[in-house]
């Protein structure tokens, strides 16, 4: 859907902003989670909300400030007291006063005479900073702002404070944000008149939040921030309703199952289904037998056996004469699924093909022919399954294996073909009910709680990276006993290149000890190279796999019983849980070593403690929500949990109800979203990146 031109300035790459070179541009792309190979855009910056503010409005003179106050003072500069020669540790002191009293300004290691230039004797300056006491004298050490009287306007009396990342300074971020604010267009109003009350328009709200004039502008409960939170909820609710209206549309076919193929598949399985798997299958069969379209979420921790449920479902579809598509998030995972399912399908006489972007032309052509003729019942692949050129004879079911990248966005990416089928979504993150509602709409949920029998608990240990030598020695012993290990390398925030370098360094170090037994896989490798490395590891030809998390470590290697995660303190809880779940799949007892670097932040320590103490994904998910509630900015992205950027659920959740009602009302009144109101809603959907929902708007 083409984007309204009015939004163009907000979708411009930050690379085109003043002061953004390649390095900063890469940092911003990473920080804002831009898709691989793409830049961050102006909108990312606009949506990056301050986490708080500094109030500098206390301006009532030296006599009225006390220890710990942030004050802004209009000072007359009296005298400089630079450090004596050869004593660089003594601070440079500046004596100053206003009509109420005296104060000193203190600078450590001030070189090059800049203090003298910034605070010329005999002149007046506005100075803002935290007031302290030393030897009974009032002083400000390293003021935050020193401003000439005629430039008082540039001193932010209410100063927003932003979440930052290593390498990104507040100064740079603030400057860029101001630049962007100047380009924000006046947008049509999408908030219904009756709801608006004292709320400013979108543009004005953004200006207030980023350039607050008073605390009410900056506060979470203030009109500006409230409006923006509502906007975000409204966009989400509109998108969900549009998707839902598609999903529940009657399919008109009540599936009938003979049981013949599912029985053969069950017989081909080397195990019997758990009670949980059976219950999930019953839910699914009931859905499929009803005339409405199925829309079901299958939640189950890593290793809980979702793939078999998908296979049995696809076998049932084949019995009713329809085809199924299994969509994985990466080519690697698609290949993995195919490899697991193919032998079972063959034994059950069920046709299955793999479709990837990188296949040989002849292979692909054969697969496409079999799908078009109906000779094949199951297609496994990535979203490429739904690209043009792929024709199914009768596609009846789409299974989406979302791992952790779930959300309505994925559902929307299915395109026409996929959306009209029954839908089974599998996710490995146990999702609390409230999140299911906001992010999945009204999907029905089946849960696999127990793990297949025979699973051994995983011994999890947390160690400082200083123990590296001992870890390697122990690893050597375990490898000699026939074990295999994953070694996951740190996520370096600055750049993906550095990620790879750190993995390459670790790889080289381990190679010195383990020689050809070690292999390396990372996101910069070609798909074919990755698959070759994975295949070697799965076949046991290599014993240790060093990997970055850029690739999904979503592979099933039952013999791998050791998971080592370096810089574990940098990972989110869900990610740690997911990584650990890669071991503990075989008969051997498994171990997970979390190596961390000191000092640990409080939340990082809490995360590691949680992972160490439990393997229950639901407990971990709840704890994750709690911890991220404390404002771990990167947590949202790292853990893969869907997150709001403007709305803060603890404060704004009442607005979700309002947005829900308003979205229902708007679509009921104006299903085609016609006219000025519809135009505004479309702008809103684009603004919050829900534009994939736009094609779902019914023709008016
Ligand atoms: P996930 O839910 O993470 O996708 P998988 O479907 O990959 O889990 O299953 C993990 C492992 O458990 C696989 O090796 C699979 O063969 C095995 N498995 C699945 N169901 C059972 C069962 N009922 N009994 C024993 N093993 C099972
Ligand atoms: Mg899986």
UniProtKB/TrEMBL annotation:
Q: Which PROSITE patterns match?
A: HELICASE_ATP_BIND_1 (PS51192), HELICASE_CTER (PS51194)
Which InterPro entries does the annotation name? DEAD/DEAH_box_helicase_dom, Helicase_ATP-bd, Helicase_C-like, NA-bd_OB-fold, P-loop_NTPase, RecG/Mfd, RecG_dom3_C, RecG_wedge
What CDD domains does the annotation carry? DEXHc_RecG, RecG_wedge_OBF
Write down the Pfam families for this protein, in alphabetical order. DEAD (PF00270), Helicase_C (PF00271), RecG_dom3_C (PF19833), RecG_wedge (PF17191)
Give any single GO term for biological process: DNA repair
Q: Output the Gene Ontology terms for molecular function.
A: ATP binding; DNA binding; DNA helicase activity; hydrolase activity
Keywords on record: ATP-binding, DNA damage, DNA repair, DNA-binding, Helicase, Hydrolase, Nucleotide-binding
Domain called Helicase ATP-binding: residue spans = 287-448
Q: Which domain of life is it from?
A: Bacteria
The keyword DNA damage belongs to this UniProt entry's keyword annotation: yes
Name the SMART domains on file. Answer: DEXDc (SM00487), HELICc (SM00490)
Q: Which residues form the Helicase C-terminal domain?
A: 467-626
State whether keyword Nucleotide-binding applies: yes
Which PANTHER family does the record match to this protein? ATP-DEPENDENT DNA HELICASE HOMOLOG RECG, CHLOROPLASTIC (PTHR47964)
Q: What is this protein called?
A: Probable DNA 3'-5' helicase RecG
Can you name the source organism?
Arsenicitalea aurantiaca
